[in-house]
Amino acid sequence: MQELLVISGKGGTGKTSIAAALAALAEDKVLADCDVDAADLHLLLRPEVESVNEFYGSHKAVIDAGRCTKCGRCMEVCRFGAITKAAPVAGEENSTYGSRGSIFQVDSLSCEGCGVCTLTCPAGAITMKPNLAGYWYISETPYGPLVHAQLGLAEDNSGKLVTKVRQEARRLAEENKARLIITDGPPGIGCPVISSLTGVTLALVVTEPTVAGWHDLERVVKLAGHFKVPVAVCINKYDLAPEKSREIEAYCYEQGLTIAGKIPFDADVARALVNAVPLTACSQGAAANAVKAMWDSLMVQMGRIGK
After folding, report:
1. Which residues form the 4Fe-4S ferredoxin-type domain (predicted)?
2. How high is the pLDDT of residue 143?
3. For residues 298 and 200, is the Cβ–Cβ distance under 8 A?
4. What burial class does residue 89 get, using C-beta atoms within 10 Å of its C-beta: 0-12 exposed, 13-18 middle, 19+ buried?
């Protein structure tokens, strides 16, 4: 089983559009969206969700009001300001709120799960409990099965969720005896990218002919090199800045990188996005043909890697 990962050094290069276009061309595959912080591959593949599963990330502090002595020690030691006093309900100042007229509460968005409050609470009123950080899904699309996820607002551990998506995609591929996994990865070079990148057969890095595009291409190529992952490059909308495209091509040649495709600017891409369908499923234009040629090039390169 092989895995093709589509990534980019920066957002906005057209990575997801190209991943969807490749998904429409491939056969005998499973699809995965590992851009869990801003998942949008499903917008083009129109999945029908078959399985919804909870994802628990880090632990969060929870205060047992019944055991709390209201000493305030937890609020003093929390360096993140996650523990605050709650104002008493009118008319209940002398009941459950005690003589201090307030109780302590945890802001789950600010809590980093360090656990210092649990160690310093003299009454043992604070415990760390698993935090529901998001959901992952198994869906069916017109282009094959898709594993995707949604991380909650301001939640962390996206690297762990990426790993879970990849594990489920591989399990599904083994069950279906699929030969290929096509993964839409996150942009940048952070933890989610590392979780997406390690162990894949080939990383297709989508860039654009701009200074920022070239700079971030260099960063992600170095990252892939660190994990010994082969890289192919796609220059999207290359004809909007031909000179910069030639500079990127020269860089790729110096680094021994294969330029798998050069996609021209094409209004059909915008029309495909508006209609929420993969480009190669609705167009015979210049960009769609370039993606098809790139797909052939990728299959040749992955065949060589497989040997």
Report:
1. 59-88, 102-131
2. 95
3. no
4. exposed
- What's the CA gap between 223 and 193, in Å, rounded? 9
Q: How many domains does the chain have?
A: 2
Say what the alpha-carbon torsion angle 51, 54, 57, 62 is, to the nearest 10 degrees: 180
Q: What is the pLDDT of residues 44-80, one digit of tens each?
A: 999 999 999 999 988 999 999 889 988 999 999 999 9
136 domain-assigned: no
Calculate the alpha carbon distances from 226 to 112, 185, 197, 217 in Å.
30, 17, 11, 14
Radius of gyration of the chain (CA): 24
Q: Are 153 and 119 in contact (CB under 8 A)?
A: no
CATH number of the domain residue 64 falls in: 3.30.70.20
Indicate the pTM of the whole model.
Answer: 0.88
Whether 307 shows a pLDDT value over 80: the answer reads: no
Task: Residue 286: give its domain's CATH number.
Answer: 3.40.50.300
Say which DSSP state 73 is in. Answer: H
Q: Domain check: are 155 and 23 in the same one?
A: yes
| Residue 249 and residue 117 in one domain | no
Give the domain extent around 87: 60-131
Residue 28 belongs to what H/E stretch? none
pLDDT in tens, 254-294: 999 999 999 999 999 999 999 999 999 999 999 999 999 99
Residue matched to tokens 């959901």? 135
